[in-house]
């Protein structure tokens, strides 16, 4: 039995969709809180699972946190998710379900997630660049 999880992440509330092979409809869970609260809910899934969420601000923290509980984590490229953005039905439950379905068929347009050290280095560069006078940028 294979389990796929799609997570529509937000800073204060996220939606989790769980698809198991042979299951006609996904199970939907809404979680209040950030990555740690989502992680607590994911720990309740008994079978090993693959997980997908859409890249947004802070996706590195989400990736690190969710990688500790999932067999694999795929971060989807938001600009290439035409299936979600072309849809007339757009809400967190639908988005999470579509991410899980795309993952189950291997159709997620993934982004590269750099390691923690590279993300911290990039953050330092952004911080320093923001402090420069506009004439030097």
Please render the helix and strand layout as text.
Layout: E1 3-8, E2 13-20, E3 27-32, H1 35-42, E4 49-54, H2 59-67, E5 72-76, H3 82-85, H4 92-104, H5 116-131
Q: How would you concisely characterize the structure shown here?
A:
The protein is α/β, with parallel strands linked by helices and 137 residues long. The chain has helices spanning 35-42, 59-67, 82-85, 92-104, 116-131; strands spanning 3-8, 13-20, 27-32, 49-54, 72-76.
Please describe what this structure looks like.
The relative contact order is 0.19. This protein has one domain: ATPase, nucleotide binding domain (Nucleotidyltransferase, domain 5, 2-Layer Sandwich), CATH 3.30.420. Helices cover 36% and strands 23% of the residues. The N and C termini lie far apart (54 Å). The protein has 137 residues and is α/β, with parallel strands linked by helices. It has a five-stranded mixed beta sheet. The model has no long low-confidence stretch (mean pLDDT 89).
The CATH topology is given as: Nucleotidyltransferase, domain 5
Order of helices and strands: EEEHEHEHHH
Q: Which outline best applies?
A: globular
Q: Unreliable segments (pLDDT under 50, ≥5 consecutive)?
A: none
Number of individual domains? 1
Give the strand content: 15-25%
Class by SSE composition: alpha/beta
What CATH architecture would you give?
Answer: 2-Layer Sandwich
Keywords:
single chain, 137 residues, alpha/beta, Nucleotidyltransferase, domain 5, five-stranded mixed β-sheet, 5 helices, 36% helix
């Amino acid at each position: 039995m294979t389990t796929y999880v799609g997570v529509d992440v937000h800073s204060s509330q996220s939606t989790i969709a769980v698809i198991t092979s042979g299951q006609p409809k996904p199970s939907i869970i809404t979680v209040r809180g950030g990555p740690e609260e989502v992680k607590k809910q994911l720990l309740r899934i008994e079978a090993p699972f693959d997980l997908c969420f859409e890249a947004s601000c802070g996706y590195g923290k989400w990736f690190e946190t969710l990688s500790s509980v999932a067999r694999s984590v795929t971060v989807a490229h938001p600009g290439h998710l035409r299936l979600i953005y072309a849809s007339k039905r757009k809400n967190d439950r639908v988005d999470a379900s579509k991410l899980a379905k795309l993952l189950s068929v291997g159709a997620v347009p993934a982004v590269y997630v750099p390691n923690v050290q590279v993300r911290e280095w990039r953050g330092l560069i952004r911080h320093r660049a923001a402090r420069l006078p506009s004439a030097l940028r």
